[in-house]
Structure formats: structure tokens, C-alpha cells
Amino acid sequence: MKKKFAYYDTGHEFPEEIVMAAGFTPYKILGDVHVSTDPADRYVQNYICPFSRSCLTEGMAHSQEWAGIAFCHGCDTTNNQYDIWKYHVKTDFLYWINTPAKNDKISRKFHSHELRRFKEHLEKKYDVEITDDKLKEAIKKSNKIKSLMRQLAALRSVKDITNEEYFLAARKCVQMDKDELINDLEKTFQEWKGRPAFPKNMVPVLVTGSDITYPEAMQIFESAGLRVVRDDLSLGERYFAQTIPEGGDPIEALTIYNSRIPQPPTKIPFHVRLDYLRQCLKETKVAGIVLQRLMFCEPNGLDFPFLSRELKKDGYKLIVIEREYTPTIDQQFVSRLESFRELITQ
Amino acid sequence: MIKMARFIAKNPQVFKEGIKGYLNQPLTPRMLQVLMQYINQSKIYKLMPWKFRKFGVFTAGFPAEIPASMGFSPGFPEAYAALTATAGCAVPPIECADSLGYGRDICTYMKTSIGASYLGWPEDFGGVREADAYFSANFVCDTHLKWVENEARIHGKPYFALDYPSVVAGEDESRIEEYIDYLEEQLWDMIKFLEDITGRKFDEDKFLEIVNNSYEICQLFRQLNDYRRRFPANRYFEWVRIFMLPMVTQWNQKDAIRFYKSELKKAQKRYGDKMEIEPGREKYRVLWEGITLWYNVDLYQKVLADKGARIVFEPYTISFAGRGKPQKTMKGTLRQVARDTLIIPYTLNLDRRIEYFNKMIVDYDLDGIIMHENHSCRPSSTGLLDLRDSLQKRWGIPVLMMNTDHCDPRAYADGPMNTRIDGFVELMEEYTKKKKH
Ligand code: SF4
Ligand code: SF4
Q1: Tens of pLDDT along A86-126?
Q2: Which DSSP symbol is given to B302?
Q3: I need a surface site. Which of A184, A224, A246, B299 has the fewest CB within 10 A?
Q4: Is residue A111 less than 8 Å (CB to CB) from chain B?
Q5: A320 in contact with chain B, both atoms CB, cutoff 8 A
Q6: Which residues of B380-417 are buried (b: 16+ CB within 10 A; e: fewer)?
Q7: How far is CA B26 from the centre of its chain?
Q8: Which residues of B touch A293 (CB under 8 A)?
Q9: Are strands B309-313 and B368-374 parallel, antiparallel or unpaired?
Q10: DSSP secondary-structure letter at B45?
């Protein structure tokens, strides 16, 4: 089995294909909501994003299982925590990729430089050659996965696919061996195709906001009778909405790809994120929009007033809600979503 | 004037509190005048067409010298917010921003500014008038990018953002050069942006002159600040925190130079070059890490001072005093500007931060450190616990972690904090005894 190479990003910035071409399985660090963050809390204050503390806890406990770790420039929380990882997470290789916050010609040139530099460091560190052919092969594999996920995701609004099932499929994409994953997704697609139609008692919604990283958060929507049929989450459409160009220089292709994915809240300008949400809403009929934010998640806190105002102006019904980082199904949260459900189905 | 009159009529109580708050600061009449001139400049810049053609909004530390050389009078929302909190009036705007949907954990500089602008308050109370263009950078935080982009969008005005790479621990000089390459390209791009929006050609000579002025201002500020190394430190935090504004705000550079020069002359006259100019020293010399508690000058001039503890150094103020000399070429100067803004004490990575503090402990003969765990500011909070552990391990120096907020007084509880300060002072007492042996 291929060794895992772990990465930590707050969107979908990490170039998985480069580590795939180096012979590793990319593994996205997602923390574990069931494990106490006490080990990380010794180094990171409790008013800082709990998800990030959970990731640090995972890093401290499991880094030896990974060939190396790479960070991508993301939110203020994770950017600043790189140093803390350097001090407290044991690894032979900790690498920093400065993904730009802007998306123009100059920043794309810089991004491509960053990716090339990362490739060179991997080659040196692991004594491998990451050829263009290997990269192209990895890109093809990724595109296959993205295409399968698009097909699976499209079934959400027509078949009986639970929120949790969709989430688990999306999570596999960033943690599982890619060949096994392709088989798994193909099987899942066959299975989901045969599912009964979208249940009448469920209400379709679009979900945006902080990345959902554990199934229990998705169960909350299910408990309130809401089905997430569209999203722009990193464990979701952000990961598979776009295809990586297959021609030309593969590193350039990855740069272009990154500039086209549904924009995470850590990037500017604002309207690109809004444009994607508007496009989703045009393509798929939903009854409402849920803007959920994990406590202390500043990037989404900065985006929400603008997004909610614009979407309301468009005439959509929406709810802005803050959630805690816990596997317990928060009944208050469920009740608020139930009230929202009532409101949007009247 | 009309805006101010309307504000007073609508908010007589806030106005009264504000005046009281300002009077509580240890400001000399000259400093008050300097402040008022800066604030008024952003109100009346249009009346000075020979000097300013436009008004620009900038985030703190942004290389405003470039737009300034194209005639942009600089306005800094953080400076207005800081003054509002100093005056003790930040809570209503913060609450207003909360009601607009900004979460309780979002930076209160930003919320003070957004709320005050929304309420139509004048600059003296945190509001920001519509600008001709908006500029921000993310070298301290992402909040800067989104905050100002949002303002530009609200007013439908041009916006330029500078994207700074993060210099993380372990990165060497060659890596920094790569980052400077990226920044230099963006600075050229900003020049083009300015030429496009103003329809004028960039004036290199003017730019170099402005950079030179910035350099001079920073040099003077640093020289003055150096006097705080002496025993006893001649100027204290409650004074310096406002004293830095002419430098931060790129306020009328010539006047700022004159102002700092005359202050320096006074200090030189009083203290000369000797290191020890008066007998004795402060009982406890303390470093303050993080942003000052703008609303709580009493903490410094009463609570700590009464116990003999004085803040003699703070990386925050000096972070704005890093502008270097203009270079021979335009390219060289832009690279210099990029470097000066890429690495500043406020945003040092952990390796550099620890090294910096180790030096300051010696240079300023410190007896204790207060680290502000600022609810508003994730960038400056992150890494504090490791910094504390490292300094305590090496020096045994007492460190007080102060968990509160820089603008929102509701996050500060006098009672429990005083108890913790007492404990901190006791530790400093022991530490200073040990130091002597
Ligand atoms: S949840 Fe928000 S604050 Fe936390 S790591 Fe993700 S983007 Fe950053
Ligand atoms: S206080 Fe912190 S978060 Fe707020 S503007 Fe300053 S650096 Fe950014």
C-alpha cells in the first residue's frame, strides 16, 4: 500500500496530483471531532477555531504514519499555526506552500512558482522523479474522480441520498487511495442510481460556510428534514466542480485549475464566491440556503454579511447559523433549522 | 462640520463621554493638535488641491507612500477606530456591526469602523467617509483584505489589494527574496492601477521624496523610542501609543517630521547621551505584547503604575517604524518597501519572534512581560503560548497572559484582572531579586 502524504489546507488548495505523481496517497488532515483537543489546547487558545485545534491534535498523534506534511496558505488561523506544527509535530518533512489570496495573472505566476518549488523539494527529499507524464497520469486520475463525484452529487436532488452518505463519499476523496477510491465511487454510483426518488418529506437546500468535516454535522440537517443538494464546501463541490486541464504543462494546468475552483472564503474578491452560489441556485431548485459557520471561523464571518445580503436581495430565503465543534446533535441547532424548514415550505 | 454637529445633536451623551475619554489621555496640547489636524485633513482634503487630489482608505502598514505620491490623502480606518476606543465610545458601533451580521468574534477594529460609518459618525468617532479608492494588504491579517474590499464595494469605488506571502518559521533569505519578487510585481501593478484611475503618470521623484520622508519619520520615532531603554524610561506606553499616530497615518509628513524633531530635541536636552540619567529605575520594567487596550489607559497609568510597573517597550508601535531609505533606483526602492512591510515585529514567525524577545529582554532590562491574548486578533494571539514557554524556560521571566480585547471594554473585567496583576507583580518582585544575585 502506498504511504500517505498528509496535507492541511482550509479550502481545496493542495495540489494532490503532485504527491500522487511522487508515489504517495494524499491524505487531507481533518481532525477528529470525537477526540479531545486538550493536547493542542496547550499551544493554541480556546478562542481560536476548534477545527484547527483538532487538526493539530491529529498531527501530534499521527504524524509518524505520514511520509510528510504540507500546508497551504489559507486562513489566518492555519497560516499562523504552521509554526506551532513545526515545534510540536514530529515529522521529517513539513512544507509550506504560499497559495495566493488573489486570482490574477501575477498571483497565478507566483502560484505556479510555488507548485514547482514544492515538486522540486519532494523530488529531493524522497529521491523520486516527478515527470510530466506521471503528473499527467495523476491529473487524469483526479479528473476521473471529480467526474464520478459530479455524477454522484447530481443524484442528490433526484434520489434518496442522505446528507451523511454524500459527505462520506466526499471525505473518501481526500483520504483514500485513489485507485481504490475510483472503484468505490463507481460502485456507489451504480447503487445510488437504483435508489428511490427524492423523498417527499425532505426539503432541498444549498449549504455554504465553514467546511463540514464530520458526519454528525450533516446529520443535523437530516434531523431537521433538510437535504443538502448543492454546496460550495471543500469536502463537496469545491473539490470536484472543475476539471483539471489535461493538455500542456501539468503544473500550469494545476495553477489554472486552482484559479477556477469555487472560491473559498479565504480569497478575494468576494463576488467570485457569490457568483458560484448564484450559478448553483440557477442550476438546481432549492427551497432555501443555509449559511453555517463554525464558531470562531473568521473567513466565513467576514463573508456572511455580504453573501446573505446579496442572496436575500435575489429573493432567496436563508438562515445564518453558528455551530459548535461537537459530534453531539445539538437540539437547539436542529430546532432552528426546523423553524427555517417551516418558513421555507409555507 | 455638519456631520459633527449632527452627530452631537443625535448622540450628546456619546460626545460627552468621548471628550472625557480624550481628556483622560496624557496628551500634550501639541499632540492633541496633531491628532485633530490628521482627522480634519481627511475631512477637508478637497480644500487642498495643491497637495491632495483624492482621498484613499488604507489598512495599517500599507505602503501608502505609493498612492500618496499620486495625490491620495491617506485615511486609516484602524486609526479612527483606535481613537474611538480611546475615547471610550466603541461599544455602540461594535453593537451596530453585530446587528449587521458580523459575528461576536470578528475583529473590533473592523466592527468599530463599520458600525461608526454605518451610523454616520464622523472620523473623530470612528466613521470613514467615502474614498476615491481603497487599498489593503494581508500582511497582518485577512480581515484587512475583506474589510476594505467590502467598503470599496459599498461605495462602488476602485480597490487594490496586495497579497503578502507568509514568512513561516524556518524560511531563509533566498525564500524571502522570492516573496519580494512577487511583491515587487504587485507594486508595479499598483502603480499601473493608480495611473489608470487617476489618468496621470506616476511621479517617481515625488514617490522617492515621500519614501524618504517616511524613512526620516521612522528614524526619528525610533530614536525617541530608544530613550525608553534608559533608566528610568522617559516616555511611557500610555503616551507612545498615541504618539505613534503621525507615523502610522502618514499624516502630513513635513509636520510629522517637525513634530518628532522637536520632541527629540527636548529628550536630548533633558537626557543627553548618557545611559543612566537619573538615579534609580522603574521598579518593574514590562514589555507589552499585542495591541494596547485603547479604552483602558487607567490600566497603564494607574493600576500598573501604582504598583511600580511601567511598560517600557511594545513591538506593536515599533512595527510601524520600519521604513527603510529609498534606494538608487525605482526598482530597488520598491523592493525595499516590499521587504519593510513583509517582515515587521508584529507579524514575526515564531523563530524570529522568540529571538526578537530574547534581545528585547536584555536591551530593555525587562522584569516581566504582558501578553495580550486578543479575542479580536487571531494572528497576534497565535504562537503566544509557545513564546511564553520559551521565554520562561530561558529566563524565568514572569509572563502575564491578559485575555481580553483591544477595542471592546466589555471583554475586560477589572476585579479578576487586578487579582492576576497582583500575582504578576509578586512574581516580578521575586524575579528582580533573583536577577540582582
Ligand atoms: S473553519 Fe474557518 S477558521 Fe477554521 S480552519 Fe477552516 S477556514 Fe480557518
Ligand atoms: S486587530 Fe488583528 S485582526 Fe484586527 S485588523 Fe488588526 S491585525 Fe487584523
Answers
A1: 999 999 999 999 999 999 999 999 999 999 999 999 999 99
A2: I
A3: A246
A4: no
A5: yes
A6: bbbbbbbbbebbeeebebbbbbbbbbbbbbebbeeeeb
A7: 18
A8: 103
A9: unpaired
A10: G
Q: Report the candidate in A167, A277, A270, A260 with the shortest Cα–Cα distance to residue A212.
A: A167
- Extract the C-alpha cell encoding B28: 500634550
CB spacing of A269 vs B149 below 8 angstroms? yes
A220-245 pLDDT, tens digit per residue, is 999 999 999 999 999 999 999 999 99
Residue closest to B408 by CA, chosen among B23, B66, B192, B96: B96
Helix (H, G, I), strand (E, B) or coil at B223: helix
Test the A interface: residue of B153, B378, B391 with most A CBs within 10 Å = B378
Cβ–Cβ under 8 Å, residues B342 and B324 = no
Omega into B232 within 30° of 0, i.e. cis? yes
E strand segments, B129-229: 133-137, 159-162
DSSP for residue B200: S
Domains present along chain A, CATH in parentheses? 4-132 (3.40.50.11890)
In angstroms, the CA A252 to CA A250 distance is 5
Q: How far is the CA of B60 from the centre of ligand 2 (A)?
A: 9
Predicted interface score ipTM higher than 0.90 = yes
CA distance A339 to A224: 9
CA torsion B25-B31-B35-B40 (nearest 10°) is 130
Query: Contact, B55 vs B131, CB < 8 A?
Result: yes
Give the Cα separation of A52 and A38 in Å (integer). 12
Nearest Cβ partner of A302 from B106, B153, B384? B106
Q: pTM here?
A: 0.96
Amino acid in position B86: T
DSSP label at A90? -
Nearest CA in chain B to A110: B182
Residue B386 contacts A, CB cutoff 8 Å: yes
> What is the rounded distance in angstroms from the CA atom of residue B112 to the CA atom of residue B77?
9
| Ligand 2 atom nearest A76 alpha carbon | 3
CA distance B295 to chain A (A): 21
Are A309 and A245 a contacting pair, CB within 8 Å?
no
Option in B142, B149, B168 nearest A83 (CB) = B168
